[in-house]
Amino acid sequence: MRRILNHPSLAIGLTATALFALIGLLSLVWTPYPIEQIVISRRFLGPSPEHWLGTDNLGRDMASLLMAGTYTSFLVAALAVAIGAGIGVPLGLAAAAWGGAVEWLVLRLSDFVFAFPAIVVAILITALFGPGAINAVVAIGVFNIPVFARVARGGALSVATLDFVAAGRLAGLGNLAIAFRHLLPNIMSLLIVQGTIQLSLGILSEAGLSYVGYGTQPPETSLGLMLRDAQGVFLIHPWLTLVPGLCIVCIVIALNIAGDGLRDAIDPRLRQGQTNVVA
Amino acid sequence: MSLLEVENLSVRFGDTAAVAGVSFALERGERFGIIGESGSGKTLTALAITGLLPEGAVVDGAITLDGTALPQDERAIAKLRGKRIGMVFQEPMSALNPLMRVGEQIDEAIVLNSLAQATLNVNTLLTEVGLEPVHGQRFPHQLSGGQRQRVMIAMALAGQPDILIADEPTSALDLVTQRKVLDLIAQICERRHMALLFISHDLKAVAALCTRVAVMHKGRLVETGPTTQVFGKPQQSYTQKLVAASQFVARRPDRPSLGDTLLEVDGVTREYRQGGLFRRAKALRAVDKISFSLASGECLALVGPSGCGKTTLAKIIVGLDKSTSGTVRLGGTAYRGTDMPKALRRDLSLVFQDPFGSFDPRLTIAASLAEPLRLEGGLERLMVRERLVEAITAVGLDAAMLDRYPHEFSGGQRQRLAIARALVTRPKLVVLDEPVSALDVSVRGEVLALLTGLQAEFGLSYLIISHDLDMVRAMADRVMVMEAGKIVETGTPEQIFAEPKHRLTQESVAARLPEIG
Asked: Which listed CATH number (1.10.3720.10, 3.40.640.10, 3.20.20.140, 3.40.50.1820) goes with A2-44+57-270?
């Protein structure tokens, strides 16, 4: 806990991220107005005590939409990270622990996925299986797999040269046991940092997919979808674009600050005031 | 007036004092040594003198050179370094620029420190440090460790300094080269009438080179005086301990007689493929048709310079690597390395060189020690705990330490724990890969005594891999000398030291530094 407080950027980033996540979660149980409630007579209202952030072109409450949209963005990005880490990390560990043909296969597979521009294939997937939040999750998740596989393999390779891994092999541990008992716990910090970065990239990708119409579909909402709805009236009502846009920017900045802070806090080489490094 | 005077120097990092109240003086042409274990603050003292302390260090006290205080200004002190003070570092590979020919690097040092009357050139400096002009055309990676250290010395000499600071200049080198570099430093200091500040943990190297020494412990100077006096009649208890620890006590003669053959190595060869996909270069033979046997209860030492293949051989024996051809037999069962039958693994274990890398930082000591016990199978949890306690008390540590994590232990304690892990399956053969070379001098003796005691207690056989001839002499029943993958000489330590036959053995024995005191 003290380590977190020693890194102001980490504290700020984590607090801001938690705040956005809480706002999103709150939308599950309570929003000022139901988000699908369309009241044309009340459209394009400015911020007021009844509607904190005003209303959009269909008279929906912007504050409610923003809460629900934040939730969707976080959910899609988090599930995508879970898919990426859940498949990518075991692949990377397998590549490091077995080596040889397994490593070759994993690396070529991730090269293959890397070779396609992410957004294009995401559009392809949603175009094939129809748009929707689930397909956005799958599309973004697939692109997280090689990222996690590479990070896990790189970290595991440097851990695998240490003597305690050899000691484990001497004790008769197989590759699987080595990977999960010795390699995984020692690269956990790397994976957490990468996870934070992928989370912010996931939120951006979700916004991008929704914006082009392949992500979340109405009556559900997401930050990208709000941008898309507002772009037609941007010159007359710029407020409607600014609110979700700034919200995306803030979430991504918060996550990036938290990721950088986590890396500083976890990496002992970057820690300040270590005397034994020089002595 | 002394050339260099350090008075009441202290270096602090936050609240911890790394160096406290250190005072000494260095006369012109004097060779002064600072001895201390890792973390004693000896390197920080040297860095304070050159103004190269890392950020965050707070310096207090006075350092005067020829009566004038060291400047605080970075530009002024940078001029001073090189012209007045030359420095040689521990690891020459990382101190040299890998992309520049060494001649150019020496030339750069000359240009930067050029005095009006200077008539230096690269070739004279190269000749002075015992290299030839042709070496100047090479890149650092094309030189050997000893040659690189000579280049570093040449660069330090380029400014014709009054003081040469050498920080562990030989600890990355093998025995023969170490001796040559030490002799070279002594010669140059003599010839140029240059003062030397020599920093080392190796008492013998300091004794061979310096006329006056200071012993440092936990940031303080414990004892200062002429070399013969400090090492011959140490006054402080810490110095006494250090001097005693540097002399290995020979093993007790009342050893049980040797039993049957335990380990047999038969024509083991390990080749590494080199070269690209299409043009296959000749394979590199790290181990070349080695055969020997080891009786139960014996302590066999394998010595040789770094890169001679001794660690590869050890890896094959313990089953971490596989031989290209040839077999190993342990108690009659043959294997080639990684294909070792599981039932055999518990009869043999390995103690690693580096006590800091050999424990998983995320596991408790108990979890790490219990790992090899899964080879036995069917042990109850209570039984496991019992065995762990037995092993940890056998190495002289407390059973309460089992629930702690590796970072809470010192290097010596970790090496004891590593030995405990090696013993937990009650093996017959323990392979020790440089068991004490990563440890501080003062704990080396303890760990070796522990190993000797355990051998008698449990009837163990040892295969020791080392380049430290003094340690081998104290421990081993039989010595094998290895060079370039082949065993070139075998014999008892007495034979090997009294009348070495092979060229390498002769050189190594001749390069040993004289005993201190």
From this structure: 1.10.3720.10
